From TrEMBL:
<dbReference type="Pfam" id="PF01894">
    <property type="entry name" value="YjbQ"/>
</dbReference>
<protein>
    <recommendedName>
        <fullName>Secondary thiamine-phosphate synthase enzyme</fullName>
    </recommendedName>
</protein>
<dbReference type="InterPro" id="IPR035917">
    <property type="entry name" value="YjbQ-like_sf"/>
</dbReference>
<comment type="similarity">
    <text>Belongs to the UPF0047 family.</text>
</comment>
<dbReference type="InterPro" id="IPR001602">
    <property type="entry name" value="UPF0047_YjbQ-like"/>
</dbReference>
Amino acid sequence: MHTLALATGSRQQMLSITDRVQALVTDQGWRDGVLVLFCPHTTAALTVNEDADPTVTRDILTHLAAAIPHRGDYRHAEGNSDAHIKTALVGPSLSLIVAGGRVQLGTWQGIFLCEFDGPRQRTLWAQWLGA
């Protein structure tokens, strides 16, 4: 297992990590298989979405915030219940196909760490399943 250390800069952010993930694949010499990424935090998640137009990530965060506001009828005492709900909806892990040493993504796709309770230092775990 490998670990990626990441820093987020705001309370809600979609941090593009595509280059970091590809660099890990390249550095390890992984060629063909599956890379599993797992986020071991209850207020951050992982997703694949458009990474060509930054208004897409803005729209995602804006509409998640509208649907699940920071302040609401929550019982959790830490003041970050919205972050837990958003994380549950987006999810903690990704399985990414790697072929010929390249993470396989669509033309406009990128890999994102979704921060819902930052800014923070975050860790991702990466596990290689392949030859």
